[in-house]
Amino acid sequence: MKKIRCAIYTRKSSEDGLEQEFNSLDAQREACAAYITSQKIEGWVLVPELYDDGGLSGGTLERPGLQRLLTDIRSGKVDQVIIYKIDRLTRSLADFAKIVDILDDVGATFVSVTQSFNTATSMGRLTLNMLLSFAQFEREVTAERIRDKIAASKKKGMWMGGNAPLGYEPDGRTLKIKEPDAQTIRTIYDLYDRCGNLRATKDKVDKLGLRTAVRTLSSGKTKGGTQFSFGHVYHILTNPIYAGRIRHKTAVYPGLHEAIIEPDVWDLMQERLTARATIPRRGKGQNCGNGKKQASLLIGKVFDESGDRLTPSHSKTKKGHRLRYYVSRRLIQKPGKKDPAGWRLPAPELEAVVANLVPGHLNTPEIMTSIVPDASTVELVKFGEYLSKLDPDTNVTSPEVFTLIERVEITPGRITIALCESAVAGFLGVVPERINSDIMFVSSEFRHRKRGVETKLILANTIAHRDEVLLKNIARAHLYFAKIRAGQSFADIADGEGVSKSRIQKLIELAFLAPDIIRDVNEGNQPLGLTTEWLLRHAFPATWQDQRDLFRPL
Length: 554
Hints:
Blueprint: E1 4-12, H1 24-38, E2 44-46, E3 51-54, H2 64-74, E4 80-83, H3 86-89, H4 93-106, E5 109-112, H5 122-155, E6 168-171, E7 174-177, H6 181-195, H7 198-208, E8 214-216, E9 222-224, H8 230-238, E10 245-248, E11 251-254, H9 263-277, E12 302-304, E13 310-316, E14 322-328, H10 329-333, E15 344-346, H11 347-362, H12 365-370, H13 377-388, H14 399-402, E16 405-411, E17 414-419, H15 421-428, E18 441-451, E19 454-459, H16 468-485, H17 490-497, H18 501-507, H19 515-523, H20 532-537, H21 544-551
């Protein structure tokens, strides 16, 4: 008869009672051993190795006893695992699936003494899944009860355990002040009150030789007693516990413990810290000349043809520059899903387009005279003075322009802007009822050009500016071509110009552009999208008519 080597696994979640001579683990083992003895006629024999986990949760597989058992199963030392109840093995369905896979790989099984079923059958596995589902449910409900109890206790101002903050020591369900650590806290607050700057406060703290709390770990080792870091100083200055309060996630409640810092003083300190945090800084990687982070001036106002809002987003280049965009919300919610109809518009370009269209619309004579139908001559003159301040050439990024905008709709081939009647009325100094609502819209056709995942808006009446870089590179190309015709090689030209041979070979192709296209470049009327970068990255035909056909749609 083949022997079936049986290993007993026992577990208890808490350490309560484990110090007793006969505890829960012993009771589980005794019941499992008796069951193995009853199956002796079937060839069952008990493995002498003990696999016990006392004081460990069944919600994880990181248990020493269980890991030793799984190792012995993989090495073929165990044929069958005997447990008192299925939840002693695990309370997680996912972990149970992992254990079953390990058992199946080596042909091993397990038996629950108090729950009779056979894991070799589909019905047995279904029963196991049902039991584990209830075990996991019980575990999650218990966790919810604990979280709710902690939240309710903190709401009453109780201290719910953990490492006591510097300056306090536990006192049941509250804290009591611990001197001289409390004096260290007072000193840090006093230093910030005098310095008004976190860096200066940190320097003063270091000069005074103040140190963090020394804690003794369960292993007997000590931790702490080091210099305060910037983060540690900031945490102390912003921790409401020193004002006699208890924080639970984002909520703060009055605590039962005594405050080290007067609450009014602490509140004033938070206002100073917040004010300091909003001071603009000039730093590496910021893309604004004055160090300020650029705001998305059209946030919440841009929509596409499906009614989907375009959400502000940003990315950073390798040099740390911050690039802003307005992106269809569906592209952000499902980043891995392609949607050709989704929009990703460069924010500065969209804002510039909008800031040009709005003043251009309001400054036209027919709009200026009809924006308030019953306006007097004096009012018309005043309106003209106000509206002339919205000069597109000088106010492209003026926030005042964007306060007049209620909604921007982007559809293929057209951009439509709805102006806010009350905002326009406030700008002109009249009541909203006097505003002509029929002219509170401005619309313009546009073409959009894809650049990778980015889209560029080009208004129908936009005139391209002269591209000096492209013009100079075309001139260089003709110079290089003349030298080739004179008998020089690419290597000779590269040495003479101080550039690479490949650069000469790429640029020389610009010498074969059609004359009328070169003339347009010189006059600033080149086809849209025709740049040095585009020409160097794309092969273009040698025949002039094919070039015209290719470049016009750009």
